[in-house]
Design a protein that fits this description.
By secondary structure, this protein is an alpha/beta fold. The protein folds into three domains: about 5-100, Udp-n-acetylmuramoylalanyl-d-glutamate--2,6- Diaminopimelate Ligase, Chain: A, domain 1, CATH 3.40.1390.10; about 105-330, Mur-like, catalytic domain (UDP-N-acetylmuramoyl-L-alanine:D-glutamate ligase, 3-Layer(aba) Sandwich); about 340-490, Mur ligase, C-terminal domain (Protein-Tyrosine Phosphatase, Chain A, Alpha-Beta Complex). Helices cover about 30% and strands about 25% of the residues. The protein contains 16 helices and 24 strands. The strands form four sheets. An eleven-stranded mixed sheet has the order 9-8-7-10-6-11-12-13-14-15-16, with helices on both faces. A six-stranded mixed sheet has the order 17-18-22-19-20-21, sandwiched between helices. Strand 15 and strand 16 (about 290-295) form a beta hairpin. Helix 10 (about 300-315) runs antiparallel to helix 11. The protein is globular and about 75 Å long. The relative contact order is 0.09.
């Protein structure tokens, strides 16, 4: 494809070369070490594996052209390679990546989910109910990687929930080419702020909630909120909004298209009442357009019902049959790492959940307390290089709802694990709840399982389905659920294959 076609309609200035005579044949990339002959290298300032300083290595690897921002000094090796300056390489790169892959988002129903909690759960639920109710082929892009049904799409290893725009558009192109009808995307605050979701042509944007998290990235809650709200300022056609969250009220006035609401506690287009919660799940009545639908989900808790409402509202908005969607809710498989449950031979229930913020930990433990018949033992920690203000608060929440806490490492990254625990422990001590301090996560899980008796519940919070632990710059293989199964000698039960 001609470079001129990727720049059409964009503000740009040609520094050298001719975009009309320059052909991009190997895609668009931000990472210099992924450049191939024929690539368009996009020099994003601050990008760890790229940026203006990586122009020379990109050229050495055969980049056909380079996009830069003002102030980038071209190396002597640039020769006559086409170099184009744009006001914002991230924004221009998103457009170029979409055009290169044929704007795949236009060819599928696109659902993007944003919010502090619930993004992964809603994405799994949307895929499940469409598959179970209609045999539909849906793609999912998010925390657990990218997949079509159970088929993973291989990508370079990354910890980004929302991939950078060149990778995201590549994934969308793969899904379009494999006959996917609907794609569900987790849209993080940083993903929205850095233009990764631009030019994906989102049909339905879902807002789940907002609570304290990611202040290390955004500085203030207002900045964090505004990053989330970017999805509803021209990036989606239709909004599905949690009316129980006060931020939801801000979305209507900024949306150019329609807004649909869901709620448990206030009037909304989709509402749930008569909740009955036990260890196996939740039964409720779904109300929509004057009709009532008896419903059930195999996940306990109000937050799970709220996620189910978001799922049904998004899918119904896309035109899928509401009765079929509601019927499919009850048959959904467990979501990996989201209130994922197993029982040991000793009769101990173990729950693995991604809860890693004060609000999510409080909701999960509050739900467990609602049906627990014996002790609750909580294994948790806090991530390194992240918001430090929540650490003592999470200790207080865990101590308040638990009979025993085991505080351990989450993803310490570049921080000393023991220093992180030093900041968590005072919150537990304020509650008077007994605790054990074990920085090694495997040892912490083993201690909790050994301490638990029949009918006790062990919650392992913070990492969910993550297959690794981040220590320094390393991603070390580690799975909470796999560790539980190994220590408790619990066999793996495979999920039923997706319908084709």
């Amino acid at each position: 494809m001609k470079l001129s076609e990727l720049l059409a309609g964009q503000n740009h200035h040609i520094l050298q070369g001719d975009p009309e005579k320059t052909y991009i044949t190997a895609g668009t990339v931000f990472d210099a070490d992924r450049v191939m002959p024929g690539s368009l290298f996009i020099a994003v300032p601050g990008h760890e594996e790229g940026g203006p300083g990586a122009v020379a290595p990109a050229l050495a690897r055969g980049a056909a052209a380079v996009l830069v921002e003002d102030g980038c000094v071209l190396p002597a090796t640039a020769g006559d390679v086409c170099v184009v300056r744009v006001p914002d390489t991230r924004s221009a790169g998103a457009v170029a990546a979409s055009l290169y892959h044929g704007e795949p988002g236009r060819r599928m129903d696109m659902v993007a989910i944003t919010g502090t909690n619930g993004k992964t759960s809603v994405s799994y639920m949307v895929e499940s109910v469409l598959r179970l109710s209609e045999g539909a082929r849906a793609g999912v892009i998010g925390t657990a990687g990218s997949r079509i049904g159970d088929e993973l799409i291989p990508m370079p290893r990354s910890v980004l929930t929302t991939p950078e725009s060149p990778d995201l558009q590549y994934l969308l192109g793969c899904m379009r080419d494999r006959g996917v009808g609907t794609v569900v995307l987790e849209a993080t605050s940083m993903g929205l702020l850095t233009h990764r979701v631009d030019r994906t042509f989102v049909d339905v944007g879902v807002f789940t909630n907002l609570s304290q998290d990611h202040l290390d990235d955004h500085g203030t809650m207002d900045n964090y909120r505004d990053a989330k709200l970017r999805l509803f300022q021209g990036l989606c056609k239709h909004a599905v909004v949690n009316a129980d969250d006060p931020v939801g009220a801000l979305i209507g006035p900024m949306m150019p298209g329609e807004v649909t609401t869901y709620a448990l506690d206030t009037e909304a287009d989709y509402r749930a009442t008569d909740l009955v919660v036990d260890a196996s799940g939740t039964r409720f009545t779904l109300h929509h357009d004057g009709h009532k639908y008896p419903a059930a989900i195999p996940a306990p808790g109000r937050f799970s019902v709220s996620n189910a409402l978001a799922t049904v509202a998004a899918c119904h908005t896309l035109g899928h049959d509401l009765s079929g969607l509601v019927a499919a809710l009850e048959r959904m498989p467990q979501i990996p790492g989201r209130f994922e449950r197993v029982t040991t031979a000793a009769g101990t229930s173990v729950i693995v959940d991604y809860a890693h913020s004060p609000d999510s930990l409080n909701k999960v433990l509050g739900t467990i307390r609602g049906f627990a018949r014996a002790r609750v033992i909580t294994v948790f920690g806090c991530g390194g290089d992240r918001d430090t203000t929540k650490r003592a608060e999470m200790g207080t929440i865990a101590g308040t709802h638990s009979d025993l806490c085991v505080v351990t490492s989450d993803n310490p990254r570049h921080e000393d694990p023991e220093a992180i625990l030093d900041q968590v422990v005072p919150g537990i001590e304020d509650t008077g709840t007994p605790y054990e301090r074990l920085a090694d996560r495997r040892s912490a899980i083993a201690f909790a399982l050994a301490a638990a008796g029949p009918e006790d519940i062990v919650l392992i919070a913070g990492k969910g389905s993550e297959p690794h632990q981040t220590v320094g710059d390393q991603l070390l293989p580690f799975s909470d659920m796999a560790t539980v199964r190994e220590l408790a000698d619990i066999p793996v039960v495979r999920r039923q294959p997706a319908l084709r």
